[in-house]
Amino acid sequence: MTLRLYDTRAQQLRDFVPLDPENVTMYVCGPTVQSGPHIGHVRAALSFDILRRWLAHRYGRVTFVRNVTDIDDKVLVNATDAEPWWALAYRMEQEFTAAYAGIGILPPTYEPRATASIPQMQELITALIERGHAYPAPDGTGDVYFDVRSWNEYGALTHQSPDQMEPQEEVPEPVEGPRGKRNPQDFALWKGSKLGEPADATWASPWGAGRPGWHIECSAMAKRYLGSEFDIHGGGLDLRFPHHENELAQSTAAGDGFARYWVHNGLVTVGGQKMSKSLGNFTLAADVLAEHDPLVVRYALAAAHYRSSLDLSASSFSEAEAALDRIETFRERALRAADADPAVLVPGDVPDAFSVAMNDDLGVPQALAVVHDAVRAGNSALDAGDTSAAIDAARSLAAMLDVLGLGAGASDATAGGAAASALDALVRTMIDQRAQARADKDWAAADRIRAAIAAAGITLEDTPAGTHWSIDG
User: pTM of the full predicted structure?
Assistant: First the structure.
């Protein structure tokens, strides 16, 4: 069966044919770590975790890269004297890692930070200047811009012409005066240092001290870790323009094939409106994971098709919990019928119907229907006394749950290993947030955080040496 994926650039489903069938290559835009993750960030990461798992099921090896944007205007804005930008970025990166691990998202093969690839970014900028597709600003600021009008294919991803596009805003104009670019649609590849910015957020360059623009970061890191051409580039729908459009333009203008398939996930919405930090309508991932079993959160976020919008509500989690309860009840029945033989839960082969669903643009909702068909068939077999058929259903179920990351033990956050580390990181993040609220004398927020932790079955103990946590016995 052929895997078909919706390619944003082609605006249609395409048969997926990897460059190397023995090593599928995939780059996904990771977080800009100016603040902690909301549940929309986690849904995006989960979409590509499931795609990666299915690719691994089909092809074996997947080289999966997810970057961390640790230098950015927003990171600098949110830094304080007490917490420099690099410290803030590291702390927020840990929060993202904990949230991802909390629901069983596999760690990437490589997770490069933007600040570790500055030389590669400068090499790419130099190539663009030499090819006539970029120019240093004539005002002596040290800025370098991509010349949109020099590249006839600009707009290929979102099917726009430059004349239809809004001007690409960088940061608010600095106090020392406006920064020049030839056309309003041109975008920054390199940003010359500005008055008031920290000295350690600046790197030497042929055009003057400064730091990279956002878009050049991903182009350089993708090429460094996956080569000049790779299979899949992923990210949220909100990244199509300008971020991914600009990545595609600068990489192809530099002579690279870049991504062969562009895959974008739908957004989490609140009342039909995109969840975002700028709108203030977000729900922190740590709060959701404190209130719900991690496996329930994973199921709720995966239940809608990855390209659709997902409007989360309380019923989303209650429905996910009920579905998982039905699965677990059957698994327990099958184990009892087999005299607790663990071989019952060893994954077998996934059913053809499951493969058909997953090969059809990662149809997880249809795949989950096959999961529940197996549960019903298994229960019917047990009711009829057909233990052999029930065991076959249980093994088939285990294989499907494995692919979806919903397998046995996936929600046991106290069992050690990565899950235990993720839980510890999440709880300590909430403890830090509570401490900050208390320091700010925001007693209502501090009480709300403690109540959320308690509702998750976790006890806090405040001592002179700090706050410790434990699972309620």
Answer: 0.84
